[in-house]
Write a sequence for this structure.
């Protein structure tokens, strides 16, 4: 029998010295530390882990919990959810001992009569350095009354065993019998303003700055990512505001009689700053004090009521970057507008000097030719250029010229419509064959015996053809974009009924070049599985070593015939699909000349992992046909004809985007060999250290070097210039470029805000969430695999969430392993979106900062419906 005095021992005052990690969990211990230091923490108390342990013991739940967890597997979400449901049911049936419930009620009553409180979970493996997962456990806000408080406590205990919490602890090698949970009950702050404070700048790593996010109402809207808050950067020493971005705050979380809800922010507050300078300075003072208390940078949740600030939580900052370069984004031309759109989606990084000086001028010439054909005049309104080596489109028109340009476009609407109708035939019959011919002229040529200037002339022709190809593809993309938009609008507004599948279902399951490439790789893997010695060799050997053996043309195993056939089939695959680009900049490798990354996916299939692309496609096609048949059965007359017509157009157009973009690098394998041959000769002359350094030269420098080489003379020594350019590139690479310039108002044209059309966000707030474009539906939680290029593909493990700057057709093999996709750059019609939908994996694109903010291995949650990524640890 437990006495009431013993029951009271299960509860602790908020600032109790007994509030240790083992007794009150990570969150509780942090609150106790701050309360004891005199910081403005809302009053409350702890319900220690002993209380939870007693609840489990007296209801005989321990064996059932451990048995359920033993059946769960971290990389099998269905087993995690099944275990969670079993445990939740056990806890729901359990009863809190009467004396414990009575004591909780008494302590609650001491806070005030029916005072609203926050009931917050605090696990013993939460908020620890290296083991933080924000949002893993539950918090219940605005709870009133003794009975409601005790029930909320029980729900917090149950949240220890959600599927994602079980999986997280399994990945962290935390035994289920070693984890427990406490609960913190605190008086609720009826916040008029709330937010998050970082005691360092989490975007740049600057230690002399704090960053504050603030929005109206309770802090839940910020933490959940449903509102973009104001962002203030404050000098840590003086409290002076260094920068202030006022966001349009459309929604806020407010308190009800019981619970909370979201409601619209009053119009007069939406564009108004939520914090005054004096309040920001006071937050900076408190943040600095908390950082000094803990001795490290801190992530702090705060709330303000009637001008008084309260600290709700503090934990060490995770994923803190090294201090990043501060670049000044000056406009190349006064009055110009600059956008990272279209081709920038394939060029996420600073350009190599050779691509910038050879390809960009040719891209601009090809664009001007299209404009001339389209509207009959030569326009200089749009061209590509670089700012800090990032590619931008320049729109150098004033308001009057802009109106005139769009008027001219409208006057030539028939020409535009005709070009859109004929674009696919022109691309298929003329442009692609021309590109293939320019490339094919050099297939089989003896490059080593070809004069350097002749090599460069051939390279110029290939890039010129590639530029024309890419620009023509922009017209080819018109039918897929328009047809999908039209079908979706017709279906959603005129056809769809409750319970019908989404419009996307009708557009999946078709072949495209990336899907065909995956099937080709899968076929090779299935053949390889039947070759025991070969399969064993692949299983125990890294992709780079396999690639070296392939390139050496020597068999690394005794079964030489198996290897010969394997090498021949791999060569055939690379000949057909090896030109897919990881990045449009030809300084970056392609699978044809660096197959190691592709071989990692091949090994995955050989090991028997992953779903057959044939089965996946067949399932999507069956769902598509079933949905179409069901809709057509119930329709008649005009609506049926309209549905069939718009659906037919959308389905015929669906593969075009991927098919056209898949060949944009058709000439890159031979082009890279040609340019590297010139580089090899420069190495022999002492002008550079490695052949690949040729891509760090400018085109005019390479032409001059070629003239000298052909004349038997030594070119200039470029080693110092190359080293300086590489260092500049590294500094620029650590920066997230603005999506529009000027930074303020640059995305507005004629009063229209084009921010939503940009391929990346520029207003990403600091905190545990990131917003982007929800490009493929669904939700998933898992470990992040941050990949910056093909050399890191071997990091990817089944079930990882792929995090990258962009994904292009060459990244498609990773989708077979990925459970979700997050990118810096990309939109609803980017490669990432289209292929993610085909694979059925959730995707959030265009976050702007994912690869900077997410650490490799960090647990993250991806909401492909809402376009939100939640960061854990």
């Amino acid at each position: 029998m437990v006495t009431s005095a013993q029951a009271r021992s299960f509860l602790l005052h908020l600032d109790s010295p007994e509030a240790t990690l083992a007794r009150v969990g990570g969150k509780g211990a942090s609150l106790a530390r701050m309360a004891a230091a005199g910081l403005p923490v809302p009053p409350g108390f702890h319900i220690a882990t002993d209380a939870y342990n007693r609840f489990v013991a007296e209801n005989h739940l321990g064996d059932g919990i451990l048995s359920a967890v033993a059946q769960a597997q971290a990389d099998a979400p269905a087993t995690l959810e099944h275990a969670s449901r079993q445990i939740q049911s056990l806890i729901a049936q359990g009863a809190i001992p009467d004396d414990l419930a009575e004591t909780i009620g008494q302590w609650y009553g001491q806070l005030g009569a029916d005072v609203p409180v926050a009931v917050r979970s605090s696990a013993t493996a939460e908020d620890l350095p290296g083991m933080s997962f924000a949002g893993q456990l539950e918090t219940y806000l605005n709870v009133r009354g003794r009975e409601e408080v005790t029930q909320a406590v029980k729900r917090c205990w149950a949240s220890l065993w959600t599927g994602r919490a079980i999986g997280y602890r399994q990945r962290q090698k935390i035994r289920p019998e070693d984890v427990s949970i406490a609960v913190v009950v605190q008086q609720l702050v009826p916040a008029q303003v709330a937010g998050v404070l970082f005691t360092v700048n989490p975007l740049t790593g600057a230690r002399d700055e704090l960053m504050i996010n603030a929005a109206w109402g309770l802090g839940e809207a910020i933490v959940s990512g449903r509102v973009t808050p104001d962002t203030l950067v404050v000098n840590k020493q003086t409290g002076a505001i260094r920068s202030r971005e006022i966001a349009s705050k459309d929604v806020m979380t407010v308190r009800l009689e019981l619970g909370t809800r979201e409601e619209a922010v009053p119009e007069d507050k939406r564009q108004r700053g939520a914090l005054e300078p004096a309040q920001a300075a006071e937050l900076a003072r408190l943040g600095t004090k908390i950082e000094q208390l803990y001795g490290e940078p801190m992530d702090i949740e705060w709330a303000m009521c009637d001008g008084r600030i309260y600290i709700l939580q503090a934990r060490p900052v995770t994923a803190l970057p090294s201090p990043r370069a501060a670049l000044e984004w000056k406009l190349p031309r006064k009055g110009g507008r600059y956008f990272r759109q279209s081709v920038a989606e394939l060029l996420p990084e600073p350009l190599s000097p050779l691509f910038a000086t050879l390809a960009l001028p040719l891209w601009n010439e090809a664009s001007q030719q299209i404009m001339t054909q389209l509207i009959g005049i030569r326009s200089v309104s749009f061209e590509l250029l670089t700012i800090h080596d990032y590619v931008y489109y320049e729109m150098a028109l004033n308001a009057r010229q802009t109106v005139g340009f769009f008027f001219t476009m409208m006057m030539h609407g028939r020409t535009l419509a005709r070009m859109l109708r004929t674009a696919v035939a022109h691309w298929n019959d003329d442009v692609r064959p021309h590109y293939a011919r320019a490339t094919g002229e050099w297939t089989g040529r003896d490059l080593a015996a070809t004069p350097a200037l002749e090599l460069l002339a051939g390279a110029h022709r290939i890039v010129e053809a590639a530029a024309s190809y890419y620009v023509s593809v922009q017209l080819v993309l018109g039918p897929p974009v328009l047809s999908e938009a039209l079908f979706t609008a017709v279906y959603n507004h005129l056809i769809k009924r409750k319970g019908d599948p989404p419009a996307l279902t009708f557009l999946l399951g078709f072949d495209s070049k990336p899907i065909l490439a995956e099937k080709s790789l899968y076929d090779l893997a299935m053949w390889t599985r039947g070759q025991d010695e070969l399969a064993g060799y692949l299983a125990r050997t890294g992709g780079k070593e396999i690639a070296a053996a392939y390139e050496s043309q020597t068999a690394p195993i005794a079964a030489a015939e198996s290897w010969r056939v394997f090498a021949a089939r791999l060569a055939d695959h690379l000949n057909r699909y090896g030109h897919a680009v990881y990045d449009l900049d030809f300084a970056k490798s392609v699978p044809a000349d660096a197959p190691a990354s592709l071989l990692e996916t091949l090994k995955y299939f050989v090991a028997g992992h992953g779903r057959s692309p044939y089965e996946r496609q067949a399932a999507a096609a069956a769902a598509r046909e079933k949905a179409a048949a069901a809709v057509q059965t119930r329709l008649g007359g005009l609506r049926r004809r309209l549905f069939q017509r718009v659906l037919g157009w959308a389905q015929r157009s669906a593969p075009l985007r991927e098919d056209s973009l898949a060949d944009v690098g058709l000439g890159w394998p031979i082009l890279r060999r040609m340019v590297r041959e010139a580089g090899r000769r420069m190495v022999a002359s002492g002008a550079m250290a490695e052949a690949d350094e040729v891509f760090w030269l400018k085109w005019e420098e390479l032409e001059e070097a070629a003239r000298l080489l052909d004349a038997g003379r030594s070119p200039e020594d470029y080693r110092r210039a190359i080293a300086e350019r590489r260092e500049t590139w590294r500094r620029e690479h650590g920066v997230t470029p603005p999506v529009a310039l000027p930074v303020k108002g640059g995305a507005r044209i004629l009063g229209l805000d084009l921010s939503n059309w940009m391929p990346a966000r520029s207003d990403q707030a600091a905190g545990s969430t990131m917003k982007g474009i929800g490009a493929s539906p669904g939700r998933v939680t898992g470990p992040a695999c941050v990949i910056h290029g093909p050399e890191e593909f071997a990091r990817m493990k089944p079930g990882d969430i792929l995090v990258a700057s962009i994904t292009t057709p060459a990244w498609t093999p990773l989708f077979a392993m990925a459970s979700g996709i997050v990118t810096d750059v990309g939109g609803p019609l980017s490669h990432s979106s289209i292929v993610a939908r085909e694979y059925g994996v959730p995707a959030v694109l265009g976050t702007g900062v994912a690869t900077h903010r997410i650490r490799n291995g960090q647990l993250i949650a991806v909401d492909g419906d809402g376009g939100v990524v939640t960061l854990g640890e």
Observations:
- Confidence is low (pLDDT under 50) at residues 127-135.
- Residues 413-440 form the longest helix (28 residues).
- The radius of gyration is 30 Å.
- Residues 799 and 819 are 5 Å apart (CA to CA).
